[in-house]
Amino acid sequence: MQGIDFEKVLEIARLGIRRASLFMGFAVNMANNPNVCEYDLSHQTKYRVLPETNDENMLAEYKHEFRTWVIVNALRELHESFVEYMEKVNQACLTFDWVVGEKTPEECDRLQKKFHKAGFPDKFDILRRQFTVTTQHEHGWLSVNAARNCFTHRRGVVGREDFNEGNHLQLRWRALEIYFIPAGGTPVLNHDIPLDGLPMQGGALESKYVDRSCFFDKGQLVELSPLQLAEICAFADEAAVELANSAVEFARGKGISIGERPSGASDG
Fold first, then answer.
1. Is residue 202 domain-resident?
2. How many domains is the chain built from?
3. Rg of the chain's alpha carbons, rounded to an integer?
4. Domain of life of the organism in this record (predicted)?
């Protein structure tokens, strides 16, 4: 079937993932750079809305708030682009049902509107129940959504409304760890390799997936490291690819051929 190009559908999610990664990277690196302290717009407006300060504690607070603000907006974009992507996947699967005569155009329109109105957790449930379209990252995505809600409604300070695991907000995701194993040496994680690299020597590369999680108590600020943010963007991409591949298999199960399965980010 030539009408649906899942690589183009996948790009909806990936654009949001790239933008979130880029903007969070800028924010975290700028906030952590002691040489970046310029925030004043008064040279443009000729009047101030913030007092001028060289106080290191005040500047550190400004930077921390800036970092949080960008992460809030990046997670929102990550989430919104993924929701838009899920809607396109649902629409594609409804189209497959229509092609084989299992649904009428009117039914497809009604079910697409229902999907649009469904909450984020329910969208995963609909894709799974109606089309067997799934991703192993569903629970991770739901926890990221909980963290996003906490940032949006409580500026990242955990309230009871945010609890999703006992009396905590739990954030969870699946990460790929890559190890360099030098000949006769100790394995080194990829993110522990020095910026100037390792000495040239024989060795091997190995990788494995690991489950990450972190817990935040009531009143605690949700803070994520650059490594955690990078891994969350990577897992979001993998979740998008899994949904696309699952939809392709759904189509093939109905005798519809739509070409190659979409590739992951690491596949080039």
1. no
2. 1
3. 22
4. Bacteria
Angle at CA of residue 228, ends 223 and 169, nearest 5°: 50
Contact, 159 vs 167, CB < 8 A? no
CA distances from 252 to 7, 56, 87, 88 (A): 16, 61, 20, 18
**20's tokens:** 């979130």
Residue with tokens 């009531």: 218
The tokens describing 100, both together, are 């084989």
Q: Using an 8 Å Cβ cutoff, are 85 and 240 in contact?
A: yes
| Residue 170 β-bridge partners | 215
Q: Edge to edge, what strands does the sheet with 188-189 contain? A: 188-189, 169-182, 203-216
State which H helix or E strand residue 32 sits in. none
Residues constituting the chain: 268
Asked, for residue 211, whether it belongs to a domain, the answer is no
One-letter amino acid for residue 214 of the chain = C
Task: Find the domain containing 104 and state its range.
Answer: 6-36+54-159+217-267
Q: Is residue 27 part of a domain?
A: yes
- In angstroms, the CA 65 to CA 128 distance is 39
In whole angstroms, give the CA distance from residue 129 to residue 163. 26
Q: How far apart are CA 91 and CA 45, in angstroms?
A: 48
- Position 1 scores a pLDDT of 44
**Does residue 216 contact residue 158 with C-beta atoms inside 8 Å?**
yes
Residue spans of alpha helices (H) in 100-119: 105-117
Q: Is the pTM of this model over 0.70?
A: yes
Q: pLDDT (tens digit, 9 = 90+) per residue, 6-49?
A: 888 899 999 999 999 998 888 888 888 888 878 777 766 667 77
* 225-237 confidence digits (pLDDT tens): 888 888 999 999 9
